[in-house]
Design brief:
The chain has 341 residues and is an alpha/beta fold. Helices cover 42% and strands 9% of the residues. It has one domain: Rossmann fold.
């Protein structure tokens, strides 16, 4: 990355980090209902992957999806409003934390079901005109749109994901499977749930595989550029195994359970590799002073503060709109209950 790209990456990562820290504050203040799954520590993966995408490319996300959505360029104000269940949210408050989407940006949705975003990404890849999908030879194998499926290592044993691996390889779909390998499926260490690594599993399906330092945004960006070009050129799907770590619990409610599945030393070891600190150090090497970084931080803080103000000012949906965007014919019971005629 050149200096301009590195500054942009720093801004994106700082925005994701501050967004997530603010989400925790808002959840604890009961301004956001339920629990949320923070992306703190994994910012380099979303930032590097999304930076390599073109404007027509699409992605599917996970229950831990705020970083992907912001990394792709969604408005933090509308994202906060979505988490608060307000009408100005990305999905008018109906998607919430785990099902937010912005089709205008190619964000085909977060997904609360582990691994379930992958087949949606495969469908988008199929629709883009994958060279192997039609079963006919072609001289021009490049496609306009690449699909990215984000998921964690905890999804690697989900049947729907493995089936998507198989079809994507067989049909040479223009896909990138981006595995955010943070070592844990909720509280279960990866080694306790599988004999082989995610990379070894993907290799067995015939995917092109690359292992990446997911705490290094430049390493992720370089690997993502290669993966997107590989997929776009008609050479088939790619599996990126991004080794990363979440600095926080599985979700905002974990602390109430008193779970101790990670040691203090392990967490501090990974915190010593904070991806944002690493980018700041590199920017200093590019000639930026601490005052320059402080100015960038202030700009991000102002952006997030304005986003929260916007979300708080947004109205809650009217009860009479509860059945809006429901496409099945209402039953007599539901029609009566919600005032439909």
């Amino acid at each position: 990355m050149d200096t301009t790209e590195l500054i942009r990456a720093y801004q994106t990562m700082r925005t994701i980090r501050l967004f997530e820290e603010t989400v925790v504050t808002l959840v604890n203040a009961n301004e956001i209902p339920g629990v949320t799954h923070e992306y703190i520590g994994q910012e380099a993966v979303a930032t590097g992957m999304c930076a390599a995408l073109g404007p027509d490319d699409v992605l599917t996300s996970t229950h831990r999806g705020h970083g992907h959505i912001i990394g792709r360029g969604a408005d933090p104000g509308r994202m906060f409003a979505e988490l608060m269940a307000r009408v100005d949210g990305l999905n008018h408050g109906r998607g919430g934390s785990m099902h937010a989407a912005d089709v205008s940006l190619g964000i085909y949705g977060a997904n609360g079901i582990v691994g379930a975003g992958a087949p949606f990404a495969a469908g988008a890849a199929w629709a883009s005109g994958a060279p192997g999908a039609a079963g006919e030879p072609t001289t021009d194998r490049r496609v306009r749109r690449v699909s990215v499926a984000f998921f964690g290592d905890g999804a690697i044993n989900q049947g729907v994901l493995l089936e998507t691996f198989n079809l994507a390889a067989a049909w040479e779909l223009p896909m990138v499977f981006c595995c955010e390998n943070n070592g844990y499926a909720v509280t279960t260490p990866a080694a306790a749930s599988a004999k082989v690594t995610p990379s070894e599993r993907a290799t067995g399906f015939g995917l092109a595989v690359r292992e990446v330092d997911g705490m290094d945004v430049e390493a992720v960006y370089e690997a993502a550029q290669w993966a997107v070009d590989h997929a776009r050129s008609g050479r088939g799907p790619v599996f990126l195994d991004c080794r990363c770590y979440r600095f926080v619990g599985h979700n905002t409610g974990e602390h109430m359970l008193g779970l101790q599945y990670r040691t203090h030393d392990e967490i501090e070891l990974w915190r010593g590799r904070d991806p944002i600190t690493a980018v700041a150090d590199r920017l200093r090497g590019h000639g930026l002073a601490d005052a320059d970084l402080a100015r960038l931080d202030d700009e991000v803080q102002q952006h997030i503060d304005a986003a929260v103000t916007f979300a708080r000012a947004s109205a809650s949906p009217e009860p009479a709109t509860a059945m809006d965007y429901m496409y099945a014919t209402p039953t007599l019971t539901t029609a009566t209950r919600w005032g439909h005629r």
